[in-house]
Write a structure and sequence with these properties.
By secondary structure, the protein is of the alpha+beta class. It contains two helices and nine strands. A hairpin with a 6-residue loop joins strand 3 and strand 4. It is globular and about 35 Å long.
């Protein structure tokens, strides 16, 4: 009888230990990490571009957890692929004829306020509409 009681207590403490190890090893959601969709949402918006003859607006949308971008002269949005650099994305046309680098710029309060687009050897900037 004493052996059975000792074994039951051992199993109980083993279960408690296993639960605490599982929670501390990352199997539990980490509330301290920001949601990636919320981060991507910061980039969404319409950016007014000045001094560019090809387009006057750059539009960034979020669909299915991915960012897409197009201009007011395009009918189809293309996916923005994240790079290793924060706030920098790339776009490659389906036929690989155009490579675009999109950099989102932040203001003093760390909010996305403008965009820098590099394409075809040109750089253009746009302010985010409020």
């Amino acid at each position: 009888m004493q052996v059975l009681r000792t074994l039951s207590i051992f199993v109980f403490f083993l279960a408690v230990y296993a639960t605490s190890v599982a929670q501390s090893s990352g199997n539990k959601p980490d509330d301290s990490k920001p949601d990636s969709v919320a981060i991507l949402q910061e980039y969404v918006g319409t950016y007014n571009v000045k001094g560019n003859n090809d387009f006057s607006k750059a539009i960034v949308t979020l669909e299915g957890g991915k960012l897409y971008g197009h201009t007011d002269t395009q009918t189809q949005a293309m996916p923005l692929s994240p790079t290793k650099v924060p706030d920098v994305f790339s776009i490659t046309s389906p036929d690989n004829s155009v490579d675009v680098t999109v950099t989102f710029l932040r203001n003093d309060t760390k909010k996305v306020s403008s965009i820098k687009i590099y394409y075809n050897g040109l750089e253009t900037r746009g302010e985010k509409e409020k």
